[in-house]
Design brief:
300 residues, 18-stranded mixed β-sheet, 6 helices, 18 strands
Length: 300
């Protein structure tokens, strides 16, 4: 790919992730930079685009570097952002092999694959499962911020990804999940108090162990509700291990997580729990990507 000599000549791609049709799934902005931008500029652009995540790709010595920004701050990982960035890298010929591209992030090197099955083309990468702690009680203030009582909770879990803050997962019945209407200010204060980056509320039935519905809230990161969140499903895969083992069930090979119903932006996250290629405690996160539009821009 040939870049302009102008530092500010950027290519911007708007993607919908975890869906096969436009205007569904999770929106993401991907900015292809002829040379790295300053952190201040990237943060201002992420705030301006105001998608849940904005990714910045730069290329140097055949290395494809990737950074992630929410509207409020930089983060070191994002599931749907990685898939969106991979789709752009393939479109622009940055892939190092026919079916994969390696992206250098602040959290390490990620190899993303371009694959297809009977449902169509998709992108996938392997990632580590988090550690999981089963809670006896929900952290103080969380239930009040969600407008529910303790009897509504079937289980509460804290998951810890390496190098990132904590994610809280709450097990509810489907009716309660669909009816949640959080107080965003209260929830933001609670997340700051407990150093919880995100809260993932989910419904799950042992009779449908491979399927889960979920909603992810992260006002502390500038994302009140993320339409379709991949990292939360990776976290859920660890919780599912506990649920299946405690219920005497075998683990499914793959999880299908349905989200976005509160936005009319439905999407499906696929997490594969075991393949011959993956190391222990790793899973594969996968999803389809629609590149909705692209444009060139110059910073003034």
């Amino acid at each position: 790919m040939v870049f302009s000599n102008c530092h500010s000549n950027l290519q911007v791609f708007h993607c919908n992730v975890f869906c096969a049709e436009p205007y569904q799934g999770n929106p993401a902005s991907v900015v292809l930079c002829p040379s790295p931008l300053s952190e201040q500029t990237m943060q201002l652009l992420a705030r301006e685009f105001n998608t849940p995540e904005t990714m910045f790709i730069s290329v140097s010595d055949k290395q494809v570097s990737l950074r992630y920004f929410t509207p409020l701050k930089e983060v070191n990982s994002c599931g749907h952002g990685t898939l969106a960035a991979a789709s752009v890298a393939f479109k622009c010929g940055l892939n190092q092999a026919l079916d994969w591209v390696e992206l250098q992030t602040t959290n390490g090197l990620i190899r993303c694959y371009q694959q297809s099955d009977k449902k169509g083309g998709y992108y996938a990468f392997a990632t580590k499962q988090p550690q999981c702690e089963v809670l006896r009680d929900c952290p103080s203030g969380v239930l009040d911020s969600l407008g529910i009582d303790a009897q509504a909770i079937k289980g509460a879990y804290l998951t810890h990804f390496a190098g990132t803050a904590t994610r809280l997962l709450l097990h509810l019945d489907e009716e309660r999940l669909l009816a949640l209407s959080p107080d965003w200010q209260k929830l933001r204060e609670v997340q700051q108090q407990h150093n919880v980056t995100a809260l993932f509320a989910f419904s799950w039935l042992p009779s449908h162990k491979a399927h889960v519905k979920g909603r992810m809230f992260s006002p502390q990161m500038g994302i009140n509700e993320d339409p379709v969140n991949g990292n939360s499903v990776v976290a859920f895969s660890r919780v599912l291990t506990h649920l299946c083992h405690s219920g005497g069930q075998s683990l499914p090979d793959e999880i299908y997580a349905y989200q976005g119903f509160s936005f009319n932006r439905q999407g499906t996250v696929r997490v594969t729990l075991s393949t011959h290629e993956m190391s222990n405690n790793s899973v594969r996160l996968a999803g389809q990507v629609v590149q909705l539009y692209q444009f060139h821009m110059e910073l003034t």
